């Protein structure tokens, strides 16, 4: 028999829609799960938009103050999809009230906030997870499997890019409900927290802790009109960031992110080069993982010269991560399905007492790297991240 799980969704924007879809669909594609999420409450500041969202997604009730939501006895889970500057207070209050806590990335505005949030969920011993959904792309999960199987061998290089182009226009305003990611007081940072947080999480999941970074950032448009006031004011977020990294395993990394790459909409790539093989992934072609095999795992036998070359794996077989829950081989899944996969992992982890990753403590390590990157960009020097060893 399944158990109902009453969920309060905080925020109705892009992420609110992605999460609501996951709650609606997870029981259909992962019927073995013990818990069945119910969209019990939506919390948002704009009552008209909140009511419309609730009607569309079948949410039972609407609140405008998250404090009332946290106090409700009929809520089991608080899912934070609201802007970054709300994460800290909301997560801590939810944990202290004994609610399960899920939170969008980045975890917080700073390492100090992330540490307090992590301490709160751990003190309350409540299940928690951060929605780094790209771990649940089958091809990326397959890359992790190949690394774990020793097919890439000793790592030498890791390189990542995350490129977009949506903020190039100099007359684009900042702030408000739609463009809060350009407002440093709400977002905390620009591409470092919004985009590179994904790249950093993926990198450390595949290749282990990042110990040191040296970085440079740039803000190309220095001043934008703020939607809340109508006045022009300085832009405090980073439009572009690039950094070098040293991993604990001795490998080297390069990371680049920008919202000024004309023609790139969501170009999120990584490549890991090891002694025995390499893997490469591109989110704009997400059903594929590229794999170069130099040596057969567990042996000294090299792949025959006439068979060497990059192999493109269409990650849709039942044997590939997550795909046994979806369609027949050859049929792909998309962006929205990664949230369903993530939620399924979270619920399965609660049932088995094996917490799904990344939890708050894991996401805290990504926050430490983001802060180290921004500090290095300010000082121009190598910065130690303080990331915990695995």
Structural account:
The chain has helices spanning 14-29, 47-57, 66-71, 87-96, 111-124, 138-148, 184-187, 191-207, 335-352, 360-379, and strands at 3-10, 35-43, 61-63, 77-80, 100-103, 128-130, 155-163, 210-218, 223-225, 232-234, 240-247, 252-258, 267-274, 277-282, 288-293, 310-314, 383-384. The protein is of the alpha/beta class. The chain folds into 2 domains: 3-133, 3-Layer(aba) Sandwich (Rossmann fold); 136-384, Dihydrodipicolinate Reductase, domain 2 (2-Layer Sandwich), CATH 3.30.360.10. The longest helix is centred in the C-terminal third of the chain and has 20 residues, at 360-379. It is globular, with a radius of gyration of 21 Å.
Descriptive tags:
390 residues; alpha/beta; Rossmann fold; Dihydrodipicolinate Reductase, domain 2; 2 domains; 10 helices; globular
> Could you tell me the number of beta strands?
17
Main beta sheet, described?
Answer: 9 strands, mixed
Provide the residue-averaged pLDDT.
Answer: 97
Which percent band covers the strand fraction?
Answer: 15-25%
Instruction: Look at the structure and name the CATH superfamily of the largest domain.
Output: Dihydrodipicolinate Reductase, domain 2
* CATH fold type of the largest domain: Dihydrodipicolinate Reductase, domain 2
CATH-scheme architecture of the largest domain: 2-Layer Sandwich
How are strands sequenced across the largest beta sheet?
16-15-14-13-7-12-11-8-17
* Helix fraction bin: 25-40%
Q: What is the count of DSSP helices, taking H or I runs of 4+ residues?
A: 10
Global shape: globular
Q: Which class do the helix and strand fractions yield?
A: alpha/beta
């Amino acid at each position: 028999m399944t158990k109902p799980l009453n969920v309060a969704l905080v925020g109705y924007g892009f992420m609110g829609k992605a999460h609501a879809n996951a709650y609606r669909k997870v029981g259909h594609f992962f019927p073995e799960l013990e818990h069945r999420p119910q969209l019990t409450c939506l919390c948002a500041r704009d009552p008209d938009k909140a009511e419309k969202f609730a009607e569309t997604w079948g949410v039972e009730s609407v609140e405008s103050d998250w404090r009332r939501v946290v106090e409700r006895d009929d809520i089991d889970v608080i899912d934070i999809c609201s802007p970054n500057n709300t994460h800290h207070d909301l997560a801590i209050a939810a944990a202290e009230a004994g609610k399960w806590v899920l939170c969008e990335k980045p975890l917080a505005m700073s390492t100090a906030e992330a540490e307090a949030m992590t301490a709160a969920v751990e003190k309350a011993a409540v299940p928690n997870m951060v929605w780094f959904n790209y771990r649940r792309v089958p091809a990326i999960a397959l890359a992790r499997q190949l690394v774990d199987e020793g097919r890439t061998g000793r790592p030498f290089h890791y390189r990542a890019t995350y490129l977009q182009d949506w903020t190039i226009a100099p007359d684009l305003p900042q702030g408000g409900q739609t463009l809060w990611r350009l407002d440093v007081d709400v977002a905390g940072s620009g591409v470092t927290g919004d985009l590179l947080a994904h790249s950093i999480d993926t990198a450390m999941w595949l290749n282990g802790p990042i110990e040191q970074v040296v970085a440079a950032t740039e803000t190309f448009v220095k001043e934008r009109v703020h939607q809340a006031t109508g006045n022009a004011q300085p832009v405090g977020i980073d439009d572009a960031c690039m950094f070098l990294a040293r991993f604990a395993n001795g490998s080297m990394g390069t990371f680049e992110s920008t919202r000024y790459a004309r023609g790139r909409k969501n170009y999120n790539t990584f490549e890991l080069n090891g002694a025995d093989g390499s893997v490469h992934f591109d989110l704009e072609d997400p059903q594929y993982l590229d794999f170069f095999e130099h040596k057969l795992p567990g042996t000294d036998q090299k792949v025959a010269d006439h068979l060497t070359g990059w192999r493109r794996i269409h990650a849709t077989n039942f044997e590939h991560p997550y795909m046994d829950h979806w369609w027949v081989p050859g049929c792909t899944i998309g962006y929205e399905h990664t949230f369903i996969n993530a939620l399924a992992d979270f619920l399965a982890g609660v049932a088995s007492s094996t917490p799904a990753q990344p939890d708050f403590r894991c996401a805290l390590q990504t926050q430490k790297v983001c802060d180290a990157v921004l500090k290095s960009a300010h000082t121009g020097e190598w910065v130690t991240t303080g990331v915990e060893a695995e």
